[in-house]
Design goal:
By secondary structure, the chain is mainly α. The chain folds into three domains: 2-46; 63-141, Type II secretion system (T2SS), domain F (Receptor-associated Protein); 142-402, Receptor-associated Protein (Up-down Bundle), CATH 1.20.81. It contains 16 helices and three strands. It has helices spanning 25-34, 49-58, 63-78, 83-93, 96-110, 115-119, 128-140, 143-200, 206-241, 243-255, 259-280, 285-295, 299-313, 318-323, 331-343, 346-400; strands at 2-9, 15-22, 38-44. It has a three-stranded antiparallel beta sheet. A hairpin with a 5-residue loop joins strand 1 (2-9) and strand 2 (15-22).
């Protein structure tokens, strides 16, 4: 929702100033006229970037909310309730921004717009896949079936993403903790401990000298590291926003050992599940490939989908088109799609492939966790061992002199 400032005149010709919340100027003007006012001017209320960011974070609709909305409306439409009554009930049950969105969708539907047209105004909440499926359900008169399958898919996606995040959270926390502890030790703790040795004027061993030099450099120029990191991060974000930059970064991500394979499996799991849902609800394969290429999160796979769609449009089989892009699609995917094309059961085959990729993703998550844990322990052991030697050895040398 946007906030609009307006100037208007009432029935007596008196000037009225005020604010109104709406999704666009057209709807804002309509709300003002419904109050019996004659609109003079209308403008969006300007807000600071920080305030807009805070409000945006606070009003962001979670995937769980969309999933719950889909499941609830699926149940009500399947039970025979008109879409307007279902939306009216959900408007009362929803909270926050989701309530505002449902209210506006209800208003649009009551005005005569289709459900798919109403939800398409919120691309940050309802994806292109979601809108395309609803549109296909409306066209085929099977909206209740589409909503049911869509809610099942959304719930599976949330569950799968939760598994991946849950498995990766431990190694991520450990690595971040190591970096923070190392930074604090090198900048604040080690310099104070080593300053005691220099007061004695004793000959320091080589590990201690190395630690003193490194720690001294960090203590003096820690701000330089933070500044360099901020510059690098800003450059990286800007570079990744370019088409070539995103392509290069995504290509490098897929080549990272273990993690790259995991990223590919996660993307392919979501891709095949989406394609299965789209083709199973009557969306053409060309539209399915086009929609999937726009919502997939990796530029390499997105480009491969675009090129595959062009080949399919020329009359080539889908399996053949996918086989031309081994950097994006594994051989098993092309094989299974060939089976789906021959048997005419593309949706069922893609669903089974999605399940296979999901199982493989779980295995790769476990492998990644198993690989990171000993690596972290080795690095931590070497670091702690070096610190102990560098700090304790001078004490041993000093005590041996007496």
């Amino acid at each position: 929702m946007k906030t609009f400032n307006f100037k208007a005149k009432d029935k007596n010709g008196k000037l009225v100033r005020g604010k109104v919340e709406a999704n666009d100027e057209k709807y804002a003007a309509q709300l003002i006229r419904e109050k019996g006012l004659i609109l003079i001017s209308l403008s969006v209320e300007a807000k600071s970037n920080l305030l807009s960011l805070i409000e945006g974070l606070g009003k962001k609709v979670k995937a769980e909310e969309v999933s719950n909305f889909t499941r609830q409306i699926s149940t009500m439409v399947g039970a025979g309730l008109p879409i307007t009554e279902a939306l009216n009930i959900l408007k009362v049950q929803s909270r926050g921004r989701m309530q505002e969105i449902v209210s506006q969708i209800l208003a649009d539907v009551e005005e005569g717009q289709s459900f798919s047209s109403a939800i398409s105004k919120y691309p940050d909440v309802f994806s292109q896949t979601y809108v395309a499926l609803i549109k296909a359900g409306e066209a085929g008169g099977v909206l209740d079936n589409v909503l049911s399958r869509l809610s099942d898919t959304l719930e599976k996606q949330i569950e799968f993403k939760g598994k991946v995040k849950g498995a990766l959270i431990y190694p991520v926390i450990v690595v971040i903790g190591m970096i923070v502890v190392a930074f604090v030790m090198m900048v604040f703790v080690i310099p104070k401990m080593l300053s005691l040795y220099s007061e004695f004027g004793a000959e320091l061993p080589t590990p201690t000298k190395i630690l003193m030099n490194v720690s001294g450099f960090f203590a003096k120029f820690w701000w330089l590291f933070l500044a360099a990191f901020a510059v690098f991060l800003n450059f990286f974000i800007g570079y990744r926003k370019t088409k070539s930059g995103k392509r290069k970064v995504d290509e490098l991500i897929l080549k990272i050992p273990i993690f790259g394979d995991l990223q590919r499996q996660v993307i392919l799991t979501e891709l095949t599940r989406t394609l299965s849902l789209l083709t199973g609800t009557g969306v053409s394969i060309l539209d399915s490939l086009s929609i999937s290429s726009q919502v997939v999160g990796n530029a390499v796979i997105s480009e491969a989908l675009d090129e595959s769609a062009k080949d399919v449009e020329k009359g080539f089989p889908i399996a053949f088109s996918f086989s031309k892009h081994p950097e994006a699609f594994p051989y098993i995917l092309s094989q299974m799609i060939a089976v789906g094309e021959e048997t005419g059961k593309m949706s069922e085959v893609l669903a089974k492939v999605s399940h296979v990729f999901e199982v493989e993703s779980d295995q790769k998550v476990k492998a990644l966790t198993a690989a990171i844990e000993p690596l972290v322990m080795i690095v931590l052991g070497i670091g702690v061992g070096f610190l102990v030697i560098a700090v304790i050895l001078p004490i041993y040398n000093l005590t041996s002199q007496f």
